[in-house]
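Predict structure. Input: histidine kinase, 692 residues.
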Amino acid sequence: MTPERSDQPASPGPKDAVHVVPRMPEPDIAEFASESVIIFDTEGAVHYWNPASEALYGWPALTMIGRGIGHLSTRSENEREHWRMLLQEGTWQGVVSRRTPSGIHIAVDIRQYVRFAQDGTPRDVIEYGRQSLSDGAVPGADWHIPDRLMAASWEIDVSASDALIATIARLRDEAAAEAQLNARYKDLVKAARIVNVNERTMRLVGGNRGRDLMIGQPVSGFWPLESRATLGELIVDAMTGKTEDATYRRQMPSDGILRDPLVTVWRAETHGRIYAAVNGTVDDDRSYVYLRASEARYRKLVHHMPIALWQVDASHMGRIYNDIRASGVTDFGAYLDEHPDLVELAATTVQITDVNRAAVQLLGGASALDLMRPVGYLFTVNRRSLHNVMIGRFNGQANYEEITKVETLDGRVLDVRMSVTYPKVLAELDVTIFSFEDVTERMSMEAEIRQLQADFTHAARISTLGELTTSIAHEINQPLAAIVTNAETSLRWLSRDDPNVEKVKALTARIAASGRRASDIVQHIRGMASKRQPERVATDLNEIVQESLIFIRHEIESQSIGIRTNLARGLPSTMADRIQLQQVVVNLLINSVQAVEAHSAGKREICIDTHRTENGALAFTLRDTGPGIPPDDIDRIFEGFFTTKEAGMGIGLAICQSIIAEHGGSISASNHPGGGAQFRFVIPVEAPDGSA
Ligand code: ADP
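Output follows.
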């Protein structure tokens, strides 16, 4: 096709009749034309100047009406000669140089036609113009014409439908029933292929798919259903019309895209091709077939959304799911595990029909076309995610979300939050929307913070162990001393004349027990000292309390502090990190021991209590007979680095708080009415994220 025809406006002519050249613009139609339409009087003064002329030349109509053509011309001396020739010959076509208000010269492709009065004398001159392509302009690209002024233009190939057109022509002659004709008209539109479309058509019905994806497609895929028969009828009119330049037009009902669209069809120079131009303003009536009406706006919105979006047509999968459901399958996850080929089918056949700019940016594509493929490439790193998406659709969910990984076109792997919005069951269009949000940075930051926290907790444990060296040494020395004593006694029994084997047996058993005990303690300390990832296992809170007491037994005994425990029986276990919980209990115990130690007067006691709360959580309470916490400090003691001790670090309680919070619980401090401090933590039996 000749490019300058691609933006061809509706050719002018009376509204309801076939019209033959010369094309006579009715000013009201010219108002909507995408081409510049100017009417000059025979003297060359501007009589009419349409909005497209304003857009092209930059001169408002008001300033041009009445002015001579010389005002526009860059070489007005030639203009007079040209005008004389034009009036003589009746028509002229070519490229001229025109002047804009800013002084720039633009090359314009113009066609001028003289209109004659009844008596044969020239009446006026109509000029159609648009920026010349020889000027380096791309069709449409440099035309800053407001959207509503442009016609949505199409070049359509109907060369394969000669037989069908002939059949329709015959049926018309036979005055066939309308329904019969309409069916044929629709067939014709289905068989008609898009050769080219202009910007406006693309924007209105092509979405972001771009021209390339419309070209070669059946016109019916993009033409509103309501007016397909009318288009077919106009095509037959144009193809069977006597004169080549005749234009055929129909006013059509609003189709939800344009209000009262006016479609004009005429035959192209190339055999078997026709042009169609649709004029009309974008339908803004929100009450009208909402889906189509908002499509243009929706696409624009989606296109500029800062979040990466993919539009997917999975309608055929929807049908497959229906069949599977009908066959009685309810656990689709299990079904997919048995039929992995179904996931592969989705990966290779579910087509992406649209993507926005952010999507192209996220995956590093050159254009939307790079991403307009079957969905499989979104799930190369994590096929399981596609599996999950399919289950969501099968189960009729409204949406689905997960954190997954996606590979960019240049091979990077991103952590993304994928959200899928499924079509409503009875929606007119089967459109699934995928959005991907890059969370790579956030994830790595979170991982770093987690690592820092782990390092810190570990450092605190080591420092706690440092404080406990006497206790630990004592704890290990005890069984070692027992081993030595028992071994010596055994030796004595053995060295007697009648060795007492029974005694030796009993003593050896004690030696073994003491050895195991020492090894248990070493194991514990190693656990506290080791650097490891926290892990959640079924943990018994009472066991934690007892193990923790071992660490500080020596301190307690040497300070003559009494320990009273009241541990509830039959507590359920909780999913927790043993070492971390132990760290909390040991920290609280050390603080209490230190508090009691510093408090010379009164009873020296630490009471520990465990129980189940009313709502089923596990509670741990520890009370000491120390001085208690000064009321001013009570809000601050959980802050990092808050300490009232000379050699204190002030991190013990802060770590306790973060560990308990990580376990989904809470910790608090108070002063007991009877004196001393009281600490209490509560943790749920279930892990906070529901996982192990
Ligand atoms: P540190 O023990 O190094 O000071 P912590 O975070 O464990 O750090 O404790 C912070 C502060 O809380 C202590 O300095 C002390 O003032 C107060 N505190 C903690 N436990 C008790 C307690 N059982 N009795 C009184 N005050 C306490």
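The longest strand covers residues 105-116.
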